[in-house]
Structure formats: structure tokens, C-alpha cells
Amino acid sequence: MSRVTVLALLAFAGLPAAAGAAVPCGGGFREFVSAMAADAQARGHAPEAVARFFGAARQDDRVIRADRNQGIFRKDFVDFARTVISQGRIDNGRRNAERHAAVFAEAEQRFGVSRGVLLAFWALETDYGAVQGDFNTLDALMTLSHDCRRPELFQPQVFAALALHERGQFDLDTTGAWAGEIGMVQMLPADILERGVDGDGDGRVSLKTSVPDAILSGARMLQHHGWRAGEPWLHEVTVPEALDWAKTGLDHALTVAEWEAMGVRARQGTLGDGALSASVLLPMGRKGPAFLAYPNFRVFFDWNKSFVYVTTAAYFATRLEGAPVFDAGSPDPGLTGEEMEALQRRLEALGHDVGAVDGILGERTRRAVQAEQVRLGLPADAWPTRALLDAL
């Protein structure tokens, strides 16, 4: 499952490059390949490697279709979590934790990342390595670099893949996800280049075939993005009916002690250090599941930008470490995809930035929903309902 954000080919001649992109996007694909090759050579890459690498590049229309069709992220948290978290995945995760106990111990000792977090990403990205993707990685990266939607994200990944190829660590027939991620934990070439770890000591970073390489590389990447060793990331809680809902959400944080003083309680166990900063997260509003999200929770967004994916991955990590199944509660019915798009258009008309009118309840749409709930005097729990849509 791709961790790239859910989000008109233009005339090539005279088109300015997108911010962060080295080469103008769009136009004829072969001309684009030639321009990328020239830029690579100007960056100092060996001419033979450049010719071999870019000579193998092909456009893949399947990649564009996959990029435009990510409807699974329209599911709400409960539906999405129930779709991707099965008892089989939990049991398999626990078996892998035992089988590779030494690797997970090393990941925690060196990088401070808990095994449940790494197991959750390993499971959700590739089902513990079983489904790593069948898209040619070079073709995927070049296709997305040529497409004018996000060339600034993908063109640097092409040059990173070229650098790996020159090191003998990227074969031209490498396959992976449609968005260019490679291996058991689905890392982009730049992440592999900069933060890959040779965990098995064979002199190569092989995320497709080596569990130690994949797990330790994933841990190092999370540490790089700010993971705080020894701290929690998510804890299911119960919340009082009289809670000030406008204080909930990732834009608002109090200390654990302050939340406890307001009646927030751990559903199981204790919330721990009262001085830690945390946010009350209500993925389906005040009547649905409730969590306390700590600073480490935000690091998950550096792996995947989808709110529902991140919340599910973080929750799954707690399940793999012994947490119970969440209490789904009785949330108010959510909006259909079409209704969500209508809501997003109304929010945009009111001046809110929702990111895109795509029918997906992402963090920016949630922020706008909460602001309008406050303005209209509705319970400001960031969960969009038909009542809010009608009120707008």
C-alpha cells in the first residue's frame, strides 16, 4: 500500500519547471527522458550509467491510473481498520516478532523505535513482505516525474535511484509499489540512499529480501523524522460527555495531566507521564473511538500522509503490543463520498483550505470542519455530518 500522499500533460516547449523539479514536466515522454539524462550527467553521474539507466525507462499508464484511483482512503477509520487489520495479520505479526526478536531488539536499542510500530508498517505495507508490488520502479518514478501533478516529489527519487544503481544496489528490473517504494517496508530510493542500513552485514542494503535490512532501515528513517525513544504514540481513552470538543484534534495539545483533570481516562492501563504533551484524537467524532495521540504519532505522517492510514497504523501497532480491540462506540453517520465533496466545496467557498475536493476526510478538511462547527455552535469534534452539511 503506497505511502505517497493521496492527492494535463502540458506542452514541453517553454514550460517552467515545477518548484523542486529539475526538468520541466509534460510533453513527449522520450524528450523528457533525454532531458532527465542530460540533467543527470550535468550532476556528475557517469555517462555510461546514465545511458544504461535512462535507456531502460518506459512510461507506464498503470501508474497514472493508480495515482488517480485511491478510493480506499474514503473509508472511515473503523471501516478501514477492520478492512486491513485481521486476526491473521496480528498472529503473523506476533510470530514475526518472536522469529526476528534479535533484529527488533537492535532496532529499539539503536534507534529507539518499538517493535509494534515496525511490525505494523511491515504488515500494512507488504503483508510482512509477501506483497511488495509488481510495478517496475524505474518506470513508475519516471512516469510520475513526467506527470505534472507532483514532479517535485518524484524527480529527486529518480536521481536517488540512479545513485543506487551506480552503487550496484538498484537493478533496472527492480519492482515495487506504483509510487516507487521498494521492499518489505516500502521505502523510496532517497530514503534508502540516505538511511538504508545493512542489517545482515552482507555489504548491501536489500530491502526486498533481507528482514534485518528492512526493519533497521525503517527504524532509522523513523528516528530521522523525530521519533522519541521510550515514549508512547497512541493510547485509547474514554472521554467525558462534557469535554470541550473544540480542544480536541491534532491542532490542540495539552499535557496528559491536564487531560486527566478534564476527565480523560485510559481505557486500559495508565496514560503514563503526566508532563507529556498529547492531543485527543476523535477519528469519527465524539461518539466514536477516542485516542490520546502523543508527539510520536505525528512521525507516522512522514511515512504516509493519509489521516485514516496513519491512525490505523498507529492503532495496529498498539494491538501488536497487547492493546484490546478499540471501542467503536456509536458515531453519527458520516457523509458519502459525494456529500463529502459537496462539503469540501462549501468549505472552500468559505475560505478554508481543504487541500483538494476529493471526498477524503483528511486533516485539513477536519480542521475546516471543526472551525465551522465552532462558528455554528455545533459540537466541535471535527466529524462532518449531514447536519453540518445542511447548516452550511
Provide a brief overview of the structure.
46% of the residues lie in helices and 5% in strands.
Verbal overview:
This protein has 392 residues and is mainly α. Among the domains are: 234-320, no CATH class; 337-391, no CATH class. It is 46% helix and 5% strand. The protein has helices spanning 29-42, 47-55, 61-68, 77-84, 87-99, 101-111, 115-126, 137-146, 151-166, 189-195, 211-224, 256-261, 295-299, 307-320, 337-349, 363-376, 386-391; strands at residues 135-136, 175-176, 234-238, 254-255, 265-266, 277-281, 291-293. It has a 5-stranded antiparallel β-sheet with strand order 4-6-7-3-5. A two-stranded antiparallel ribbon has the order 1-2. Helix 1 (29-42) packs antiparallel against helix 2 (47-55). The longest helix is centred in the middle third of the chain and has 16 residues, at 151-166. Mean pLDDT is 92; it is low at 1-19.
